[in-house]
Amino acid sequence: METLLQGFLQYVINSLQWGSFYALIAVGYTLVYGVLLLINFAHGDIFMVGAYIAFFVSTLLIAELGGVASGWTLVILAVPLTMLLTACVGVTLERVAYRPLRRKGAHRLYVVITALMCGLILENGNLALLGASRKKFPEMVDTVVLTIGGASVTNLKLLVIFAAFAVFLFLHWIVTKTKLGMAMRAVSFDKFAVPLMGIPLNTVIVFTFVLGSGFAGLAGLLFAMSYPILEPYMGALIGWKAFIAAVVGGIGDIRGAFIGGFLLAFIEIGVASVLPSSFRDLFAFSILLVILWMKPTGLFGIAKTTKI
């Protein structure tokens, strides 16, 4: 009985960690979709770019401050720098690729195709600039293994889980308590009427990309600290999984994206703990497909009607 309890606790801890990665990326998908009805398929690659930005930022901080600052101080400095620089990448994509199409009134299909091409540009641009060789993320803090109820958890896992819940609470506060959050909800409701009310549409959209891309950069930093091997295509699969998690939760709903990320992680880890790991994605996505078959709008999504 005690062994079963320890195994269950370990399963919960591992699922919470992976769910935190999915949730941090999924909220970026759902923020952009909620405001623009755009599925930003380049978002997984923004996560990858965030991991590489974190690599260079951390390497620079260690070289400049490694002898006088503690490891956690370096992490505290690396987090805002990584989020800021990754947000700049997301805003640049919006300005260069998405805004011209929006101004010309292009069909949403062309915007989605553009998003896919932006993701490929980020992947292959990274490959061309930095090469195909993998990079090892520098170790900023020592890994400390803690025991909770017989289950092992590291300080990095606790950091990842805490960051995900902190981001969710922060986003919930922004969306429900601030003027910009109210503007984001207004744009998602009717983006054509919003400019008539004096709300700067482009400012709201840029703010949305700043939030989504910044949190993707945070996820990239935390992922690189936990699994310190970086390669140009690392964002492809995890990005698709985070998108699926957002859809299952109800894309456009922050709460749905958050819960969908954890739901996918619990299913994946649960399947891998019972069956060979090669069955993990097959069973996980099959279960998610059944969920969408039963509730096509996702767990928290609401069907929208179009008035003619």
UniProtKB/TrEMBL annotation:
The keyword Signal does not apply. Signal peptide: none annotated. Pfam families: BPD_transp_2. It comes from the Bacteria. InterPro entries: ABC_transp_permease (IPR001851), BCAA_transport_permease (IPR052157). GO terms for cellular component: plasma membrane. It is a multi-pass membrane protein. GO terms for biological process: D-alanine transmembrane transport; L-alanine transport; L-isoleucine import across plasma membrane. It is found in: Cell membrane. This is Branched-chain amino acid ABC transporter permease. Belongs to the binding-protein-dependent transport system permease family. LivHM subfamily. The chain crosses the membrane at residues 20-39, 46-63, 69-93, 105-122, 156-175, 196-227, 233-251, 258-276, 282-303. CDD domains: TM_PBP1_LivH_like (cd06582). Keywords: Amino-acid transport, Cell inner membrane, Cell membrane, Membrane, Transmembrane, Transmembrane helix, Transport. GO terms for molecular function: L-isoleucine transmembrane transporter activity; L-leucine transmembrane transporter activity; L-phenylalanine transmembrane transporter activity; L-valine transmembrane transporter activity.
